[in-house]
Amino acid sequence: MSIRCTKTARMLFPKAGTDLARWSVIACDQYTSEPEYWEKAEELVGDAPSTLRLTLPEVYLEDADVEDKIAAIHAAMKEYEEQGILEELPAGMMLVSRDTGGACDRKGIVMAFDLEAYDYKAGSDSPIRPTEKTVESRIPPRLKVRKGAPMELPHIMLLIDDPERTVIEPLFEKTAELEEKYDVELMQNGGHLKGWFIPEGELTDQIEDALERLSDREVFNAKYGLTKDLPLLPFATGDGNHSMATAKAYWEEVKKTLTPEEQEDHPARYVLAEVVNIHDESLIIEAIYRVLFGAEPKAVLTAAKAFFVAHGAEVLEGEGQGDSVQVFPWYAGAESGSFSVKNSPWALPVASLQAFLDDYVTAHPETKIDYIHGLNSLKKLSAEAGNMGFYLPDPAKGDLFRGVILDGVLPRKTFSMGEAREKRYYMEAKKIEK
C-alpha cells in the first residue's frame, strides 16, 4: 500500500511590481546569535513590503516586547491582504531552483502537506516524520505567532529519497511551458532564486503519482533491504522541524472546534513546504556545531571526562584513533584543543556530545547553548570571552532515511543542509483561516 499526503495549494504571492529582493528574507530560525544580521535586513528592507514584517526572527524570541512584535506581525498580515499586496494564486504548486554558488542549483517543489499524516512524537510511525528529536518546549512561543495569524509563511523543507530522480528533476525540462513567477537575487549573500508556477491539472497529478510510487511497499522494502514491513517513510523533515511541529500543534487545537466535515478541507490542516530530493547534487548534509555561552573551558572539560567515565566510556586527551573512538575538537577564546571518547554508549558523536551538554546545562543553568551553522560562525562566536564551541563531523548523507526508519529520530540538531545563508528564504504564503 502506498500513501498520498500531498495536494496543490492556493498560495498567496506578492502583487506585480513588488520588489522581491526586499520581500524575501531568510528563515526566522537562522542567525539566532547574530543580531547584526537582522539589523542589516531591517536596513535593506526599509519601509518596503517584506516577509520580514510577517515573521518573527527568533533572535528576538525572548525580548521583553515580543508580544508587541507578534501583534505587529498579525496586523501586517491583515494589512497586506486588505491592500492587495498579497494576492491568492489559483490552486497549484511552485517549481523552484536556488543557486547559492555551488556546483549546481537546489531543485524543489512547493506544495501542501496533510498534517494528519505527520506526527513529531517519539515513536511515531506516520508517513511524514522528523529526522531529529523535536524539543516540545520550543513549540509554545512559536505557537503564539501562529495563533491569530490569518496566514503562514513556513520555511519547511521535506526530503524524499529518490535516487532514480523520478519526481522533481524531470520537471525542469518543462520550464519553458510554465509561468515564471520570480527570478531574484536574495539579500545578504542568499544566492539566486527562481520559481515557476504549476497550475493544478495533469502535471500536478503526475507529480503526486510519482511521489506516491516512492512509498510503494515493494519498492520501499527493496530500497532499504528490509525483511519485515516497517512503517513507510515517504517524507522526512530536513529543515524547519519546529515550524512543522508548530503547524501540527496549531491544527490539533483548531481541529477540536470543527465537525468531521469541516476538518476535511480546513486550510490549517495543510502546511506549505518545499519537497527536495536528498540525492539532489547541491544538497550537502553538514553537522550543526554547539556553542556554550557563559562557560569556563576547564570546568567543562573536567565535567565531560566525569560524565563519560560515569557512562562506562574512556576519555583521552587529543585525537584518539580507532573505530570505537569519537573525537571532539573545541575552541574557547584564543585556545583550542580536542578530547576523545572511547566506547561511548552513543553510536553517533553528535548523540554523545548532546547527552553531555544537556547534562551540563541542566547542572549549570547560568550556561546557555546555541546551535551554529558554518565553521566560520563557530570560530567567530567561540573566540568571544566566556564562550566555548564544539566541532562535529558531517553525518553520512545516505544513512539519513535508513537511520530514521530503523532506529527512530536522530538526536536534535544532528545535521544541517548547508550553511545558514543557504536556508529557505520566505516567498510564498498560504491562508490558515477560513
From TrEMBL:
Pfam families: DUF1015. InterPro entries: UCP033563 (IPR008323). PANTHER family: DUF1015 DOMAIN-CONTAINING PROTEIN, LMO2823 PROTEIN. This is DUF1015 domain-containing protein. It comes from Hominifimenecus microfluidus. The lineage of its organism: Bacteria, Bacillati, Bacillota, Clostridia, Lachnospirales.
